């Protein structure tokens, strides 16, 4: 059984109702295929310096996916192709400067990174690192984010499978013709 604040109540998780009534953020799960397979980009948070995904408060004139892509550029200097649907969700308690915390729900969007620039708005304020997916899951402290990262491998494999199948089929048809 999970922590008391995550106990089931009437078919819903109590904490989910609490988080829906408070803050809503978006995050970018920035990924690429590297030397060791699937790699994920992590950044440090501004205050506590823990490892997180680029994330932040959405701006109303942008879609949630566009906001996630904006955060990835501002916090890590990366751009690429952003998915329009979230690949996961998690909850955390955002620390406030004056003490206490705000419950926040985060929608996570996958960003296939195609470019990393040398200069970006928050360069020098955060550290960034590319790590294998399993290592990324071990580095983050929020359990919900860890679960999203662990689930991403399955999501990523499912998304890539049809494209590989089509490519193989095209290759077979070309070789016969």
Describe this structure in words.
- This protein is of the alpha+beta class and 177 residues long.
- It has a single domain (12-176), classed as Nucleoside Triphosphate Pyrophosphohydrolase (Alpha-Beta Complex), CATH 3.90.79.
- The chain has helices at 14-20, 64-76, 133-139, 143-176, and strands at residues 8-9, 12-13, 23-34, 37-44, 51-52, 55-56, 78-82, 88-95, 101-116, 128-132.
- Strands 3, 4, 5, 6, 7, 8, 9 and 10 form an eight-stranded mixed sheet that branches.
- Helix 3 runs antiparallel to helix 4 (143-176).
- Residues 1-20 and 161-177 have low confidence and may be disordered.
Which keywords apply here?
177 residues, alpha+beta, Nucleoside Triphosphate Pyrophosphohydrolase, two-stranded antiparallel sheet, 4 helices, globular, disordered N terminus
In short:
With 177 residues, the protein is of the alpha+beta class. It has helices spanning 14-20, 64-76, 133-139, 143-176; strands at residues 8-9, 12-13, 23-34, 37-44, 51-52, 55-56, 78-82, 88-95, 101-116, 128-132. α3 (133-139) packs antiparallel against α4.
How many alpha or pi helices? 4
What is the name of the CATH topology?
A: Nucleoside Triphosphate Pyrophosphohydrolase
Largest β sheet strand count, sense and barrel closure: 8 strands, mixed
Give the CATH class.
Alpha Beta
Structural class, from helix and strand content?
alpha+beta
Radius of gyration: 18 Å
* Proportion in helices: 25-40%
What is the chain-wise order of helices and strands? EEHEEEEHEEEEHH
Unreliably modeled segments: 1-20, 161-177
Q: How many β-strand stretches? A: 10
- CATH architecture assignment name: Alpha-Beta Complex
- Overall 3D form: globular
**How far apart are the first and last residues' alpha carbons, in Å?**
59 Å
How many discrete structural domains? 1
Average pLDDT, rounded to a whole number, is 81
Estimate what percentage of residues fall within beta strands.
Answer: 35-45%
The CATH superfamily name is: Nucleoside Triphosphate Pyrophosphohydrolase
């Amino acid at each position: 059984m999970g922590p008391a604040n995550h106990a089931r109540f009437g078919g819903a998780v109590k904490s989910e109702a609490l988080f829906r009534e408070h803050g809503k953020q978006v995050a970018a799960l920035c990924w690429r295929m590297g030397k060791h397979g699937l790699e994920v980009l992590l950044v440090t948070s501004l205050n506590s310096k823990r490892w997180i995904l680029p994330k932040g408060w959405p701006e109303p004139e942008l879609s949630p996916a566009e906001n996630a892509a904006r955060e990835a550029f501002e916090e890590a200097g990366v751009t690429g192709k952003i998915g329009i649907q979230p690949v996961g969700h998690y909850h955390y308690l955002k620390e406030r400067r004056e003490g206490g915390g705000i419950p926040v729900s985060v929608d996570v969007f996958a960003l296939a990174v195609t470019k990393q620039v040398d200069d970006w708005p928050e360069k020098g304020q955060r550290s960034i690192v590319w790590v294998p997916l399993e290592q990324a899951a071990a580095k983050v402290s929020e359990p919900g984010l860890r679960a999203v990262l662990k689930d991403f491998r399955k999501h990523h494999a499912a998304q890539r499978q049809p494209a590989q199948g089509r490519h193989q089929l095209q290759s077979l048809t070309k070789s016969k013709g």
